[in-house]
Design goal:
Layout: H1 2-9, H2 16-21, H3 23-36, E1 42-49, E2 52-64, E3 68-76, H4 85-98, E4 104-109, H5 113-121, E5 125-130, E6 142-147, H6 150-155
Parallel strand pairs: 3-4
Antiparallel strand pairs: 1-2, 2-3, 4-6, 5-6
Organism: Sphingobium fontiphilum
GO molecular function: acyltransferase activity, transferring groups other than amino-acyl groups
Protein name: Ribosomal protein S18 acetylase RimI-like enzyme
Length: 156
């Protein structure tokens, strides 16, 4: 699911050759590491329909003293985007982290306009622009989105 989402969402952001040839192995290695040795505060929430996974959010509670919990990944099956699954997952992540008090943040590729629109609609504030390198080794500018009150986001 993670790779399928990236192929669609990042097709105009990441190198097409990398997406075609290296993405699956990269995501598998990432999840092998995450599941074998989770970061402190890491949780993965999965949205299901009829027993099948349709989306997920990986979060790290208390990841940053200034910005709060980190939404490390939020992905929905490409055919289901726009159907409310992402909103449910983001609110569930916020509810999970609200017990710690404070906010939550995430990073989004600057060129990922559909995701940026979603985070804007969900009340996220762009608080920082960062020059980063993507997993394909190419420049991939990112924005940090921030919600000051995770409990308010969870409440919708």
């Amino acid at each position: 699911m993670h790779a399928a989402s990236w192929r669609v969402a990042y097709r105009d952001i990441l190198d097409p050759r990398w997406l075609a040839e290296e993405l699956d192995a990269d995501r598998l290695a990432t999840w092998d590491r995450r599941m074998a040795a989770p970061e402190p505060g890491q949780s993965v929430l999965i949205a299901q329909r009829d027993g099948a996974a349709i989306g997920f959010v990986c979060l790290i509670a208390g990841a940053d003293p200034r910005w709060g919990g980190l939404v490390d990944n939020l992905h929905v099956l490409p055919d289901l985007k726009g159907g409310g699954v992402g909103s449910l997952l983001l609110r569930a992540a916020a509810a999970h982290m609200a017990a710690d008090g404070g906010g939550l943040h995430l990073f989004c590729y600057t060129a990922n306009h559909p995701a940026r629109g979603f985070y804007d609609r969900m009340g996220g504030q762009v608080v920082e622009a960062l020059e980063k390198t993507g997993p394909d080794g190419l420049p991939a500018p990112e924005l940090r989105y921030f919600w000051a009150d995770a409990a308010a986001l969870a409440a919708g």
